[in-house]
Write a structure and sequence with these properties.
The protein is α+β, with helices and mostly antiparallel strands. It has one domain. It contains 3 helices and 8 strands, in the order H-H-E-E-E-E-E-E-E-E-H. It has an 8-stranded antiparallel beta sheet. The N terminus is likely disordered.
């Protein structure tokens, strides 16, 4: 092989490698991403969730599906404390649901340490195919259920301890 061909092959290979990296999703690692429990969840993640194919991410204990990414998972976040946000149980996992930016949702597993945080987009538009929140939680809850429980669980609003009414002197 001529000597001038080798640098050209190296350049072509580097270009292909870098082009492949462009599709990597940038997801910051959670504070406890290195927890052994997160590794147990990550090894079982499916290639497809709610019809969206898995993509590469650039941080430990993270995953993404869809192009553009419509589902993002981070393991190792802090478990949320008591909240007035809606909480639903799916396949034995309680999820606190932040609907403040609907049709984009943020859900965090409740009562498990470390916790898992999901972001997903349910909106369907010309350039984005949204996902079903039920399909996302149905697919990922069995894996998240592997995380140890820390005692917390969703309670119905009627069962929650009411805030005492201040008594006027």
């Amino acid at each position: 092989m001529p000597r001038r061909t080798i640098p050209a092959l190296i350049l072509a290979t580097a270009t292909l490698v870098l082009a492949g990296c462009a599709s990597t999703v940038n997801v910051p690692a959670a504070p406890d991403a290195n927890a052994a429990e997160c590794a147990d969840v990550m090894v079982g993640l499916p290639q497809t969730v709610a019809g969206a194919d898995r993509r590469w991410t650039d941080s430990q204990a993270t995953a993404a599906w869809g192009d553009p990414a419509t589902i993002i998972l981070s393991c190792g976040v802090a478990s949320p404390g008591p909240t007035t946000l809606r909480c639903e149980s799916v396949s034995g996992v309680d999820w606190v649901i932040d609907e403040s930016e609907a049709p984009r949702f943020r859900v965090v597993s409740f009562g498990r340490t470390p916790a898992v945080e999901l972001y997903f987009d349910t909106e369907i538009s010309d350039d984005v195919q949204g996902v079903s929140s039920r399909e996302v939680l149905d697919a990922l809850s069995p894996l998240v259920s592997r995380l140890p429980r820390d005692g917390g669980a969703c309670v119905d609003r009627v069962d929650a301890t009411p805030v005492p009414t201040p008594v006027s002197p």
